[in-house]
Amino acid sequence: MGQTCTHLDQIKADARPSSEGCEDCLRTGGRWVHLRMCRTCGHVGCCDSSPNTHATAHFHTTDHPLISSYEPGEDWTWCYKDDTGFRVDGLKDFSHP
Ligand SMILES: [Zn+2]
Ligand SMILES: [Zn+2]
Ligand SMILES: [Zn+2]
Hints:
Elements: H1 23-28, E1 35-38, E2 44-46, H2 54-62, E3 66-69, E4 77-79, E5 84-86
Antiparallel strand pairs: 1-2, 1-3, 3-4, 4-5
The structure holds zinc ion (3 copies).
């Protein structure tokens, strides 16, 4: 995958996962399929295969463009603005065990 993202300065090295699960689903009793973590503020939300797509909703409300998978063994990052996925060398891996 080519790395053409120009938003890498949005990554905050000290962002930590906000929750063990999708924080919005946990609040509303929703269910998720996969989890994504915002690289700017640490918001944990659910993926686009989930009924409530909170990770994408977070992007639309905050304009934070970069998420990473929060799934075991996955270390990719996705940019909503560039609509592209890639890996960022040296980025801390928060995927839960
Ligand atoms: Zn980008
Ligand atoms: Zn959710
Ligand atoms: Zn965020």
